[in-house]
Write a structure and sequence with these properties.
By secondary structure, the protein is an alpha/beta fold. It is built from 12 helices and 12 strands.
Length: about 325
């Protein structure tokens, strides 16, 4: 039994099956997530990679059931957390899970924090919602979490505007981990930060994740972050997963033209090349996705077969999964 087969044995901690998310208005329908499936083991990290608008954040919001009440819906599929279908739960039951079993670090810390409430009180409020105890105990837990993310407990009574961008992101992380969640959804947690602070925040998340054995879904554009943080990787494009496997499989043996294009667009400091090799064209309009493979308008290997029907996910020679009609041809060309 190989590594990929072994990972698929038994009930996974999190399993997303055929998830479909739509945003709609009177005039149009946005197909944000289209029949997405993946698994996540306890204590592991899955990276969702893709261009802006690929549907990565919509996947995370659907798992947490925080899509807008108006104009958005989970149109199909299941989200199973330890075998329990979250999409079938009532809103009352989901409130018990949010902040306790599942939490989310949002991309912009300023929008995640209440500007007129002290940061310590915001952390203590999360703890109070999901545990029993006294006000003093909640405050003490909030102070402990601030200390854990490298912020002095004395800053408990300060407001968000008194913190730098990196410090605000640390507060958001403290809120997310205050109740020792089983699953952490990190939506580009370092995008708004400078490079040195990015490294500190990522290191902090990884340390806390290991301490609490927390599973994580990390959304990012940065392949370097994926390489240093994730166990598994899903390449997302136009609401579809085009390639899915372990970090080693995706980085060592990319099989889909889109995945290969992403790697070619990364600067290679060892190669003597004057220009980068970007992927031609733009992602499709999610209100009018192309028939067949959504990547075919930008793909050098596309033919009539790629334009007909939904392309099935298939196995690669390396043990992971890829959604491409011409995988064998792609691999032959790339080896050359």
């Amino acid at each position: 039994m190989n590594e990929q087969q072994n990972r698929n044995v038994g009930t996974p901690f999190l399993e997303v099956k055929n998830l479909t998310v739509e945003y709609f208005s009177k005039k149009q329908m946005v197909h944000a997530v289209n029949d997405v499936s993946f698994r996540l083991e306890k204590g592991k990290t899955l990276g969702l990679v893709g261009e802006t608008g690929a549907g990565k954040t919509s996947i995370a919001k659907a798992i947490l059931r925080i899509l807008p009440d108006v104009g958005a819906r989970i149109a199909g599929g299941q989200v199973l957390l330890e075998g329990e279908n979250l999409t079938a739960l009532s809103e009352h039951d989901m409130r018990k899970i949010r902040g306790d079993k599942i939490t989310m670090i949002f991309q912009d810390p300023m929008t995640a924090l209440n500007p007129v409430q002290r940061v310590g009180e915001q952390i203590a409020e999360v703890v109070a919602l999901h545990s029993t105890g006294t006000k003093e105990e909640f405050e003490k837990r909030a102070e402990e979490m601030l200390e854990m993310v490298g912020i002095p407990a004395e800053r408990y009574k300060e407001y968000p505007h008194q913190f730098s961008g990196g410090m605000k992101q640390r507060v958001v992380i403290a809120m997310a981990l205050a109740c020792n969640p089983d699953l952490l959804l990190a939506d580009e947690p370092t995008t708004a930060l400078d490079v040195t602070i990015q490294a500190q925040v990522l290191r902090l998340i990884e340390q806390l994740r290991e301490k609490f054995n927390t599973s994580m879904i990390l959304i990012t554009h940065d392949m370097g972050v994926i390489a240093n943080t994730c166990d598994d990787v899903a390449i997302v494009y136009a609401g579809n997963i085009l390639e899915y496997g372990t970090r080693e499989q995706i980085f060592d043996h990319p099989c889909h033209p889109y995945t290969i294009g992403l790697f070619k667009a990364i600067p290679n400091m060892e190669a003597d090349e004057e220009w980068l090799h970007p992927i031609n064209g733009l992602p499709p309009d999610p209100t009018s996705l192309p028939e067949g493979c959504p990547f075919h308008p930008r793909c050098d290997y596309a033919d009539e077969k790629c334009r007909q029907g939904r392309i099935a996910m298939g196995s690669t020679p390396f043990g992971h999964q890829c959604r491409c009609c011409h995988m064998d041809q792609v691999l032959k060309e790339e080896v050359k």
